[in-house]
Amino acid sequence: KRRTMNWIVLVGSIYTLIVLLVTYLLFCGGVDNRDKGLLGKIQYYTTTGLIESVKSVFFRLLGPKILEKAERINKYCCYTPNPILQSVYLVLVVGGYIFFIRDAFQHLPGPYMAGYHKITAHIAVGVTLFFFVLCSKADAGVVTEEESNPHHKAYEFDNILYERKPCKSCKFIKPPRSKHCSICGSCVARFDHHCPWVNNCIGANNLRWFLSFLLATALLCTYCAVAAIQIIRGILLERDIWNLKLKDNATGRVHDLPYYYVFQYVLFSGGAIFPVGFFCGAIALVVYAFLGYHLYLVWQNTTTNETFKHGDYRKYVNYWLYRQKKENASPEEKEKEEKRKRREHPNDKIAFHSLVVPPVTDLKKGIPNKYNKGFISNFKEVLFPPTTRKINTPKTSHNKKRK
Are 166 and 172 in contact (CB under 8 A)? Predict the structure, then answer.
């Protein structure tokens, strides 16, 4: 049993490290300055680079017409509101739950799992689906011209990431921290991101439900993974699998049952218990990582959108400083710097129509965040949003269109 536990701990540790590495690369690999170095290259070649390579292969094999149809499908799936991933989520949760009921409930109660888990399992799935529906249906904080005044009063323009200017699509002054979602086609207050899993934007009014949805999903996956482990342990104990011996006919020696025999027995006798539990364990790690990332954003009172805007602002400042240095350099230094720039950044797409002096040029202390009010206040702001769409206020100068 001790050797078995050591083997399980080793495999579990390697598996956990791989999942955490992949999660980090997907969520954090391209943020700010993390896109440099080895991890940045791995993140690029496993995401953007991989997609570009697949496109190139498909273009050569299938031709431009098939690729164009594939691009249309991709555009529908990724850039228009659709219930595809919502359906996938429901299939995974409900389908996995049905298989778990069929194969696991017959072993309850067991040596390590009490009979009341037949009830708590229903409650766990019900709570998760409740927050899923709530997050999918809740208003994210859509800003209209008639109701934008409360959102203007909720936050001030910081003149770094947000300036007083009209939305190019909605044609009225965007409130601070809002963004026009190209998928939903509307401006959203305190915009974080558009989540295809709930087919809804995540903004000021439903961020609390999104965090609840992530937490419920993570806890459900954890509950399922732990239950699967405990049920499998109970099966092995009840059937005395660990005490079985294997006789070598060639030598006549008796050995302990090999681990892979035990593993095969678990797979074939446990039905969907192990596959569902293993899958839930993997998903739990990813969802916990994603939840932790969003809790960190709440702690800093920033958003996913603002995180990427910080990265764009840093690039702008660095480019502005580079231009300033270039203007004051000698001709020889200018030519040398241009060669280095082309060599190190051959595909640099940074382009600005007008180079204005950035409000903050010293980035050693980071970009100031005037919205950060402290840990407790930041969480209160998420739990109790300062504005809602239902507040009706008269039009102000914020909403007057230009003549």
Answer: yes
**Residue 304: strand, helix, or coil:** helix
Average pLDDT over residues 106-132: 93
Q: Residue 390: pLDDT above 50?
A: no
Helix (H, G, I), strand (E, B) or coil at 143: strand
**DSSP assignment string, 231-288:** HHHHHHHHTTGGG-EEE-TTT--EEEPPHHHHHHHHHHHSTTHHHHHHHHHHHHHHHH
Beta bridge partners of 201: 194
Amino acid at the residue 229: I
Which residues are designated catalytic?
195
CA–CA gap between residue 19 and residue 169 (Å, rounded):
40
CA nearest 28: which of 289, 367, 202?
Answer: 289
Q: What digits encode the pLDDT tens for the residues 360-380?
A: 777 777 788 999 999 999 999
Produce one character per residue of 40-53: b if its CB has 16 or more CB atoms within 10 Å, e if not.
eeebbeeeeeeeee
Pairing relation of β-strands 193-195 and 200-202? antiparallel
CB 111 within 8 A of CB 237: yes
Is the model's pLDDT at 294 over the cut of 90?
yes
Give me the amino acid identity at 199. N
Q: How many helices (H) and strands (E) would you count in the chain?
A: 12, 7
Q: What is the pTM of this model?
A: 0.77
Nearest by Cα to 25 from 1, 50, 54: 50
The pLDDT assigned to 248 comes to 75
